Amino acid sequence: MRRHPRRGEADVQVSPASPVSPSERGAEIGRRIGVGLMYGLWKPRVLGSWRVPASGPLIFAVNHSHNVDGPMVMGVAPRPTHFLIKQEAFIGPLGTFLEGIGQLKVDRSSADRTAVTRALDVLAAGGVLGIFPEGTRGEGDFASLRAGLAYFALRGGAPIVPVAVLGSTEKHGRLTKKLPPLRSRVDVVFGDPFDAGDGSGRRTRTALDAATVRIQERLTAHLANARRLTGR
Fold this sequence. Notes:
Blueprint: H1 24-41, E1 43-47, E2 58-62, H2 69-76, E3 81-86, H3 92-100, E4 104-106, H4 113-124, E5 128-131, H5 148-156, E6 160-166, E7 185-190, H6 205-230
Parallel strand pairs: 1-7, 2-5, 2-6, 3-4, 3-5
Antiparallel strand pairs: 6-7
Helix pairs in contact: 1-2, 5-6
């Protein structure tokens, strides 16, 4: 039965069941593939991975400046990760591969209820959801966050781990401007997990807006610390 939102509550509806549950085994296979690719093409340096909780629902909030950010985190993270990825990437064999390794297709042009449901399924099963809170690739500075991250954190009861991916800015050796130079060092810095909510359990629009502000402050602070730590 559909529940009508209480006065002031965000009206975000999801379907009662997802058509295909994300595969944690597939995500673990993707992690192993990612390890080989990332260490084969670049030189990842991972800092703070011990901060990642070993179990329970979790959200990785990742800055996004290169196309390699998602695969890099997927490969070096200590737990298999299900990323929300734009549906435009799910084309032909690549789409089949992404679905096979437990990644989640999302239509960014509308309220994609199927993607929301599948993402919440991941958290309900105690898995890790990967999100680019800026919504798209840009400067990777967490300057503009969408409300989706706050919604998943509050609705899924999951702490957030900020992740900063800092790649080389050198142009020599690049296959494309969207990727760091081959064999260059890429730093991945995991931060301390934190709760986005205020402890009240509310999921009203006001609560989501306040949570988004808190999240942005924490992510921005983590990125600044990661840059000081790595010299990037």
